[in-house]
């Protein structure tokens, strides 16, 4: 049995009917990111509040995986567990087979709220440098990393401005640039494009695809936007709510490179977004 | 826009000038020994403070003020950080703060006189201790209210404890710390004068009180005037410093309001 089949095992028997998923890929190597029977609850004993029931899924190297689910399902909690900010209550999450017990060095996180994740007292460039200081890099490399990260998000001109002088979309690009300058192998994004306008959103989605192409990163994106998930992802992990569990892992077989207009108008795109949507819409 | 700004500035600068003129005119022919003409006061002001007692009293007072305030600021921020971050310190310090902050700062001076004596040490120590609490309390509040999101960022990017304190917590808390420092500065100023009035022969406060006790009313008025001028200038200096350090905060607030 493959890991991906495990992903769809749910504690509730009636859900297992959805587990019949064609085996399209079988990973032969250790997955980059492996989440196995992860559960998270707050409080203990009778009053324990289960946020995540039993999550199992994997992300392979170089993949983009999107996690979708109804709002309030515990997606942010999941990411905080993966980022080592919260310990899991049971089960485990591991990178290359090593269990995550604190923030992993090879991981960067782009937070949902750019407004509260950038340091308002630092200029854009200094925001980028802050996480790099303890790496004790030579000044030339520091500069090179900042320059290329800012260029990648199209903000080369904004290095000396403060984040609050920029628009919302630009601030989120700064947050992404900060992650890029950190040179992570795994990039995790928590609803990164939720609070920007539609046009900026398309640009940032394409930026995300470009990053994967250019830097060969493994990217995990949490979103509540089904179209976005299908557009971005190689696979979509669909979560069911309260407590969160994996309903299904949907393989997205859309051609690459993807392009906002042509990809989204493919019949296959419509079919896959309908598949994901019907999973989410289905009464729990 | 410029006109509104100019007008406001004129009102701000013009009001004191008007009041001074009114004082000058109404006191011009005064024969009341307790309300001498402003002209006489200004003459005494110049004679007393600008030459004779500048070094011996004005500089001494200012030195005490700044030394005491500097100690209070450093200790306030330091103890405040420890209180906010180390639970053991918090349990130790919290009840103590609530007890000590209830005591009017000036009331501490007599205790210090009996403990340390009348010297400079006593004055600096009373200023420092009294001015400590506003900064310390503001620092504790400031650090505790740093958003969890910022701290999550700091942890995800694996900032060291030192970096988290110096590069995230303290800068994020500076707006509140500066509010505390501002109050500390006022308290320091009050205690500076009180410490000189209560048992000292040196300093602006001592000179002013001495003048009052010897019925040298013009000298007394001159002393009060000097205190006002110093208080004003010290606040202006502090405002400039604050504007420099908190330019990011002021800018971001303005931006948030405009949005």
Task: Note down, in words, how this protein is organized.
- Chain A is of the alpha/beta class and 284 residues long.
- Chain A folds into 2 domains: 3-106 and 185-281, P-loop containing nucleotide triphosphate hydrolases (Rossmann fold, 3-Layer(aba) Sandwich); 113-183, no CATH class.
- In chain A, 32% of the residues lie in helices and 22% in strands.
- Chain A has a 10-stranded mixed sheet with strand order 5-4-1-2-10-9-3-8-7-6, with helices on both faces.
- In chain A, α6 (198-215) links the parallel β7 and β8.
- In chain A, α4 (139-152) packs across α5 (168-181) and α7 (226-232) packs across α9 (267-281).
- Chain B has helices at 2-27, 38-52, 54-85, 87-100, 108-116, 120-144, 148-156, 161-197, 204-213, 217-245, 247-258.
- The mean pLDDT of chain B is 88.
- The radius of gyration of chain B is 22 Å and the shape is flat.
- Chain B has a single domain, classed as MetI-like fold.
- With 259 residues, chain B is mainly α.
- The two termini of chain B are 19 Å apart.
- Classes of the chains: A alpha/beta (284), B mainly alpha (259).
- Chains A and B meet through β6 of A and α7, α8 and α11 of B.
State the gist of this model.
The complex is a heterodimer of chains A (284) and B (259). Chain A is an alpha/beta fold and 284 residues long.
Please report the number of helical segments of chain B: 11
The helix-and-strand class of chain A reads alpha/beta
Question: In the residues of chain B, how many domains can be counted?
Answer: 1
Radius of gyration of chain A: 19 Å
């Amino acid at each position: 049995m493959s890991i991906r089949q495990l992903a769809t095992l749910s504690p509730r028997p009636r859900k297992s009917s959805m587990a019949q998923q064609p085996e399209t890929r079988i990973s032969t190597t250790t997955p980059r990111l492996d989440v196995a029977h992860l559960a998270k609850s707050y409080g203990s004993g009778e009053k324990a509040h289960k946020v995540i029931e039993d999550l199992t899924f994997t992300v392979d190297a170089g993949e983009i995986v999107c996690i979708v689910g109804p709002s309030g399902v515990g997606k942010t909690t999941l990411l905080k567990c993966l980022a080592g900010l919260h310990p899991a209550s049971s089960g485990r999450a591991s990178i290359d087979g090593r269990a995550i017990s604190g923030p992993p060095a090879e991981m960067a996180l782009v937070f949902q709220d750019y407004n509260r994740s950038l340091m308002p007292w630092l200029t854009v460039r200094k925001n980028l440098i802050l996480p790099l200081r303890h790496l004790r890099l030579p000044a030339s490399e520091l500069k090179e990393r900042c320059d290329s990260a800012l260029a990648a998000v199209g903000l080369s001109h904004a290095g000396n401005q403060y984040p609050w002088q920029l628009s919302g979309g630009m601030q989120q690009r700064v947050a992404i640039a900060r992650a890029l300058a950190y040179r992570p192998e795994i990039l995790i994004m928590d609803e990164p494009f939720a609070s920007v306008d539609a046009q900026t959103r398309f640009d940032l989605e394409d930026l995300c695809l470009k990053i994967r192409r250019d830097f060969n990163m493994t990217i995990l994106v949490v979103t509540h936007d089904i179209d976005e998930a299908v557009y971005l992802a190689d696979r979509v992990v669909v979560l069911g709510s309260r407590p969160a569990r994996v309903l299904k892992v949907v393989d997205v077989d859309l051609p690459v490179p993807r392009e906002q207009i042509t990809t989204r108008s493919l019949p296959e795109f419509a079919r896959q977004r309908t598949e994901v949507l019907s999973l989410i819409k289905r009464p729990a | 826009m410029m006109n509104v700004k100019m007008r406001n500035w004129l009102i701000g600068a013009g009001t004191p000038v008007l009041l001074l003129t009114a004082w000058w005119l109404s006191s011009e022919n005064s024969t009341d020994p307790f309300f001498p003409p402003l002209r006489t006061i200004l003459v005494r002001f110049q004679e007393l403070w600008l030459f004779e007692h500048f070094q011996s009293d004005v500089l001494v007072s200012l030195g005490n003020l700044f030394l005491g305030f500097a100690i209070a600021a450093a200790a306030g921020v330091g103890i405040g950080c420890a209180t906010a971050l180390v639970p053991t310190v918090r349990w130790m310090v919290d009840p103590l703060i609530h007890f000590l902050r209830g005591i009017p700062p000036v009331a501490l001076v007599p205790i210090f006189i009996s403990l340390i004596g009348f010297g400079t040490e006593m004055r600096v120590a009373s200023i420092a201790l009294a001015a400590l609490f506003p900064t310390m309390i503001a620092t504790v509040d400031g650090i505790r209210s740093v958003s969890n999101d910022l701290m999550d960022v700091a942890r995800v990017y694996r900032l060291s404890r030192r970096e988290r304190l110096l590069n995230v917590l303290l800068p994020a808390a500076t707006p509140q710390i500066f509010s505390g420092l501002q109050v500390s500065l006022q308290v320091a100023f009050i205690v500076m004068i009180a410490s000189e009035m209560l048992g000292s022969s040196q300093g602006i406060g001592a000179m002013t009180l001495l003048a009052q006790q010897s019925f040298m009313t013009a000298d007394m008025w001159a002393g009060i005037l000097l205190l006002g001028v110093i208080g004003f200038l010290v606040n202006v200096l502090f405002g400039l410093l604050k504007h420099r350090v908190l330019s990011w905060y002021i800018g971001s607030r303005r931006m948030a309001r405009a949005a």
